[in-house]
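> example.struct
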């Protein structure tokens, strides 16, 4: 009966540890304990945490005769099991010195046994890591078994060191079973709390990563095509489906580009921005969060709007300039998930990168187009000089022919400089080629003979600007340099209407 009452009292003491452990699991302090690592901050946190548990186990212990029935072994074993031999030994030393300072018949033996318990947990840690089984470190069965063995070792040390022996034997016979049961159950439950927190963390992390990757894949390249209403609506629909939130909106600096979800009957794309939260995010470039409790949220468009909270994240373009915002909403009857908040900020960075990449691509395309136009505008000076000299010579003999040559030269330059598009009709290109060949024919009359034969039904088809004139330059130049006999160049329109 005495032993049963002692077990109940020690279980009450153990419950205090478990409550503290559960409260710790709700803080960031618990996160480093959920992984096996050699990093110094992790080791230091293990040492401090389990040294406190060790000391508390002694303070909350029950004084029996000249000794203390306690749950100190939980802290020592868990410190070694999660932190390794060094941490376990230091935790045991700290807890052991504290127990020694309190005196009593078993002071020395309890100090030594506490150090051994920490080292025993650390030894098991090393063995499991060396065998490639770090998952076993977080097993409640492993923690309970080691603690049970550690308590058995403690009882043996008390019998070996504590004197007088008869008193030590009497003490061990009274406290051995209660302490072994209580510490074993306590260590297993502590590890169960840690394991549950670890499983929950991994579950949310994997879900978060999967959602982020799916959103990234679904929105890849959309805003690179342009930050407009059509592309913004595509992105908003993807986010609304994947994040499971109340609504999603995307704006530029002046108006709403896209909206989907609750309230889409009055949040209409194209309307000017009226929300103070959105304007603040655009002006300051900072994330604005209105949770509906600490920071009240009220829809600026409709007093009966069902949306109760919002997260407004700036979208940045070139030079970190705010180009617009992405807004995530939740309904009044739902809390805004912290995961969605973090995910939303990450997605905003992804979309900002797409906008910036799209701006660079369009600038690059404009630069390339400008370079092409510049090349088109460049005229071979020899061709120009030869044409002008030819016109000068012809004027003296045949003013009418000279007038035609001037007209051809004018047509050539007009087509060369003023055509806005790279794609032109075949009829337009024939006119340009004819002007070019007429000038060449007059300059190199002995080697230049040509005839243009195109069916009229092909005149409406498209071809590249200056395509034929570039193709004709090579045979003309070869004929002029090598005095070759006239040759025939044949060009046929494509079957689908392009050249």
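> example.seq
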């Amino acid at each position: 009966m005495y032993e049963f009452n002692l077990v109940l009292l020690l279980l009450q003491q153990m419950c205090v540890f478990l409550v503290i452990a559960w409260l710790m699991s709700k803080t960031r302090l618990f996160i480093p304990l959920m992984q096996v690592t050699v990093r110094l901050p992790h080791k230091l946190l293990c040492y401090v945490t389990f040294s406190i548990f060790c000391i508390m186990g002694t303070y909350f212990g029950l004084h029996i005769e000249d000794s203390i029935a306690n749950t100190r072994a939980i802290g020592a074993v868990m410190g070694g099991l999660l932190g390794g031999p060094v941490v376990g030994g230091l935790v045991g030393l700290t807890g052991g010195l504290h127990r020694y300072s309190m005196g009593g018949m078993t002071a020395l033996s309890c100090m030594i046994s506490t150090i051994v318990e920490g080292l025993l947990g650390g030894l098991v840690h090393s063995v499991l890591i060396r065998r490639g089984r770090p998952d076993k470190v977080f097993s409640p069965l492993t923690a309970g078994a080691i603690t049970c063995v550690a308590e058995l070792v403690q009882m043996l040390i008390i019998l070996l060191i504590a004197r007088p022996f008869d008193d030590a034997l009497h003490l061990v016979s009274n406290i051995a079973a209660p302490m072994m049961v209580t510490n074993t159950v306590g260590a297993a439950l502590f590890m169960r709390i840690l394991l549950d927190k670890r499983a929950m963390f991994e579950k949310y992390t994997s879900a978060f990563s999967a959602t982020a990757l799916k959103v990234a894949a679904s929105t890849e390249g959309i805003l690179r095509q342009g930050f407009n209403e059509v592309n913004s609506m595509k992105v908003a629909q993807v986010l609304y489906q994947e994040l499971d939130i109340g609504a999603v909106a995307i704006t530029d600096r002046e108006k709403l580009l896209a909206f989907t979800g609750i309230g889409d009957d009055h949040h209409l794309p194209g309307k000017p921005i009226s929300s103070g939260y959105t304007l603040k995010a655009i002006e300051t470039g900072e994330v604005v969060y209105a949770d509906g409790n600490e920071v009240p949220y009220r829809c600026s468009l409709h007093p009966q709007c069902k949306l109760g909270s919002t997260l407004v994240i700036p979208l940045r373009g070139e030079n970190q300039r705010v180009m617009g915002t992405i807004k995530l909403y939740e309904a009044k009857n739902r809390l805004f998930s912290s995961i969605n908040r973090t995910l939303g900020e990450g997605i905003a960075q992804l979309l900002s990168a797409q906008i910036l990449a799209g701006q660079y691509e369009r600038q690059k395309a404009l630069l390339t187009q400008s370079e092409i136009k510049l090349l088109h505008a460049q005229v071979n000076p020899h061709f120009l000089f030869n044409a002008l000299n030819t016109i000068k010579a012809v004027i003296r003999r045949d003013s009418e022919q000279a007038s035609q040559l001037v007209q051809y030269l004018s047509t050539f330059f007009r087509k060369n400089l003023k055509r806005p598009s790279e794609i032109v009709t075949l009829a337009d290109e024939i006119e340009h080629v004819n002007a070019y060949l007429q000038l060449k024919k007059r300059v190199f009359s002995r080697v230049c003979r040509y005839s243009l034969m195109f069916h009229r039904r092909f005149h409406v088809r498209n071809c590249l600007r200056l395509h034929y004139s570039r193709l004709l330059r090579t045979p003309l130049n070869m004929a002029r340099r090598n005095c070759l006999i006239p040759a025939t160049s044949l060009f046929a329109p494509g079957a689908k209407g392009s050249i």
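> remarks
The chain has a mean pLDDT of 79.
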